Amino acid sequence: MMLLAIDWGSVGVKTLQFILSFSILVTLHEFGHFITARIFKCRVEKFYLFFNPWFSLWKKKVGDTEYGIGWLPVGGYVKISGMIDESMDKEQMKQAPQPYEFRSKPAWQRLIIMTAGVIVNVLLAIVIFIGILWTWGDEYIPVKNLHYGIQVDSLGKKIGMQDGDKIVAVAGKPVERVGTVAAEVIMREAKDITVERNGTQLTLPLPAGFIGQLNRNRGGGFTYIRIPMIIDSIGEKARIVEGTIAKGDTLIGFDTRTVHYSTDLQNMPMPLDKTVQLTLKRNGTDTVKAKVYFDNKGRDFISMKSPYQVLGSVKINYTLAEAIPAGAVRCKETLSKYIRNLKQLFTSKEVKAQDSLGSLISIGDAFPSVWDWTSFWTLTAVFSIILAFMNILPIPALDGGHALFTLVEMITGRKPSDKFMEYAQTAGMVLLLGLMVYAMGLDFWRLFRK
To answer: Do 186 and 311 reside in the same domain of the chain?
Structure first.
């Protein structure tokens, strides 16, 4: 039933998904640098998943390369001989260039090495999207299937929405899929939304500040799907103390509370180690009662039908040949949306950095509290695109900064001095560390604000 609260178990599941996803992304990104460096005969001194200041969790040297796992999960790195990078190895740079060093290679080879990680991340996202579409297809609930309408919270009521409304358009553009309204409002900086109420369409203006508040809600939370609570299955661990419950029964009462839709129990305190009386409608006409025990984690082991089961969904299946171009298109669309959102930080009056930026805490919290492979791989693909885009930005200390300096060298024929590269690398690292600390502070502030 819809009464489970997020506990430490769910936090653990989120953390494990984050670590696995982040490890895949970082390892393959660094592998892009590693393999191209080896192809061009550069010596790779270190290949690390996560950073390892002061000590490593594990390390092993094979040939010229030390492979290891650090303890600080904020990225990873490969240390290529003769390159000014995170290690800031100035002593090596004082020596005469060696044939196996990065700095002795032609500019075009160095450019490939520096952009290889980004390229791998983009290809990874495309491959993951292809796999998702080929394996699971694309399933969604059409807005037209919201037979019971939606429930709105205080933010929705401020703009004149009512429980039972159906959102049909944002800024005049029809909404096709359930769950996309908030994102569309923010990305389009919509001035109005259109709802259907009692068979009549109404256009509701969005006041100044609405998008900012919605963005502070992290893109969610002003409308909720509401459906009847229909019993789908009764687990072996379910303890029905009195009465009977059958598959297909509809919950209409929980203790002393009347239940019409799933949202009626949304903000109700969770019963812990307690027996609760349920009132159910059976066969559409009969009313029956049953007493059910909830354990000390609020579980009754009775499952309700999902919105997909109750409302019906559209399922698009793909062959492998169809999934390949569709996966590439989805990668392009995801990147386009991310760039638009990033652009809003500089152009929008309502979308503010302090409401949009997040650290590893926000990334980890994006994963579901139960293990779901579809969600896991979808988020991994999205984060792979974000990682690629952020790394290609022309900021010193990032791949894009190194690539920019190399392009300038290729155009002008003049290579930046080692001293300039040292200063640029230091400035870039200070900037990135500052942004990381700022984003981490925002996340902690949001946690305490809750």
So the answer is: yes
